[in-house]
Design a protein that fits this description.
- The protein is mainly β.
- The protein contains one helix and nine strands; from the N terminus they run αβββββββββ.
- It has one helix spanning 2-28, and strands at residues 34-52, 59-80, 83-92, 97-101, 107-127, 130-148, 155-177, 180-190, 196-207.
- Strands 1-2-3-5-6-7-8-9 form an eight-stranded antiparallel beta barrel.
- It starts with a helix and ends with a strand.
- Residues 1-28 have low confidence and may be disordered.
């Protein structure tokens, strides 16, 4: 009778040991789950073609500029098998300055101080370590508009603004470890009026 009880017990133990690696392997493939923080940097092209400031100092600003952009982000992702969904907030302390010279010699410029956004993203893990995702959200751009006098660059008129609008894009993220990943992303920002920017950003993410 003891042998009759012992054999099923040993069998159950062996099944449990065999099932443990499978369960661990399944959990280890959730490479995009949890609270996260990171940094990102890359290339940005910003442009505008709009009339700014109030009369009698209003003037048309038509310019574009490209250069380096950087910032940081925090967020949370949840992974359901191959589906990943999450929310993210980011902040960039730098911006581009756009400027046009007017017919009377004056100039008008838009100087960006910072940008921030909140967005949702969702994607599919096309491989255990590779995520393809899309993003959509809402962004704010804090900037100062100035009309400058000809010759001496003294401000004839100054106005601080918060431009806001839709952001959207997508990218790829690769998990080098359960708690770390690299990503590359295209992002477009649509602000009030015709102020727009296109970005290609690379980022490092740490998960907790």
């Amino acid at each position: 009778m003891k042998k009759t009880l012992l054999i099923p017990t040993i069998g159950a133990a062996l099944c449990g040991l065999a099932g443990a690696p499978a369960a661990y392997a399944q959990d280890s493939e959730e490479n995009f789950e949890g609270v996260k923080a990171g940094v990102q940097a890359g290339w940005e092209r910003r442009k505008i073609d709009d009339t700014l400031l109030s009369t009698p100092n209003s003037a048309r600003l038509n310019d574009k500029s490209s250069g380096f952009s950087y910032g940081g982000f925090v967020g949370y992702d949840a992974q359901f098998d191959k589906i990943v969904a999450g929310i993210e907030a980011d902040f960039s302390p730098n911006g581009r300055t756009l400027r046009s010279t007017l017919t009377n010699g004056d100039s008008i410029e838009l100087d960006s101080q910072w940008t921030a956004s909140v967005s949702a993203r969702a994607g599919i893990a096309v491989a255990p370590r590779l995520l393809a995702y899309g993003r959509v959200g809402y962004g704010i751009n804090r900037y100062t508009v100035r009309r400058l006098a000809a010759g001496d660059n003294n401000a004839v008129a100054t106005q601080k603004e918060n431009g806001a609008g839709l952001i959207y894009g997508g990218g790829l993220e690769y998990a080098i470890h359960r708690n770390a990943s690299f990503r590359v992303e295209y992002r477009r920002n649509e602000n009030d009026g015709s102020l727009q920017s296109n970005q290609v950003l690379g980022g490092l993410t740490l998960r907790f």
